[in-house]
Design goal:
The chain has a single domain, classed as Rossmann fold (3-Layer(aba) Sandwich). About 35% of the residues are buried. The chain contains 7 helices and 9 strands. With about 240 residues, it is of the alpha+beta class. The strands form 2 sheets. Strands 1-2-9-8-7-4-5 form a 7-stranded mixed β-sheet. A two-stranded antiparallel ribbon has the order 3-6. A hairpin with a 5-residue loop joins strand 7 and strand 8. The protein is globular and about 50 Å long. Helix 3 crosses helix 4.
């Protein structure tokens, strides 16, 4: 960040994610900004859950055996190296896990699935990207309907069979990983939410951004409330 030649690197958590964790899930976010794979077992022992946030960056296509199709794609291989291992560690150790946008895509790739690098370039698929000319409020406004799997966690959260959500992503699910159960699809058929079948703890991934003004959106709020409940359940188990 900063203007050249005085730019410096920063390790940042977006305000909207931190506030959603504190206010909606009623948990306190903690950061380990320089954690790496060798730190993971010790750090997972002292946390009650893991939230994988969205990001301007995308999952590197090499992570699902593809070449980069656009040299302008924003990538973050350091994050890939950590989060793809972290997903499996959370599932294996029954740590509550919530993946949002990029985090949703990371869970799919970590479990063996693949991504479309550019959803809007796929025949019959909609353009799920935000417009750069829009204000932030416009970018995060409800953009398309979402059809929820009957009797699923998300259908319970919504209290309905469909909801409207925001849409701010370029990559999206191509092949869903084995062991993931679809919980929601967009009108064009794109998978936008899933859970890990047989997971011993809350494990949910959603393609949209429920953290955005979640206190004003009951469906978004309920997602975080359920995540918070799972974190507190793990906390109680850890304290025994």
């Amino acid at each position: 960040m900063g203007n050249a030649p005085h730019q410096k690197p920063y390790l940042i958590l977006g305000d909207k994610y931190a506030r959603a964790a504190r206010d909606a899930a009623a948990v306190q976010p903690v950061l380990f900004p320089l954690a790496d794979g060798q730190d993971m077992p010790a750090l997972l022992d002292i946390v009650d859950g893991v939230m994988l946030t969205g990001s301007p960056s995308n999952v590197h296509p090499s992570q699902f055996n593809e070449e980069i199709s656009d040299s302008n794609m924003q990538l973050d291989m350091d994050r890939d190296a950590l989060t793809l291992k972290l997903v499996r560690a959370c599932v294996d150790n029954q740590v509550p896990l919530l993946g949002l946008c990029r985090g949703f895509q990371e869970i799919n790739v970590a479990m063996g699935g693949t991504l479309h690098q550019h959803v809007h370039r796929q025949p019959g698929m909609a353009d799920h990207r935000e417009l750069a000319v829009e204000t932030t409020e416009q970018q995060y406004a409800p953009r398309h309907e979402l059809f929820l799997t009957k009797d699923s966690l998300l259908a319970e959260c919504a209290g309905a069979g469909s909801v409207w959500v925001n849409s701010l992503h370029t990559q999206g699910i191509n092949q869903l990983a084995a062991g993931l159960r679809t919980l929601a699809v967009a009108p064009d058929g794109l998978v936008e939410a899933f859970e890990v079948e047989g997971a011993g703890a809350f494990t949910l991934g959603v393609q949209w951004h429920p953290e955005w003004k979640c206190m004003d959106t009951p469906f978004y709020l309920e997602i975080f409330r359920r995540f918070g409940e799972a974190c507190r359940a793990r906390n109680r188990a850890r304290m025994v």
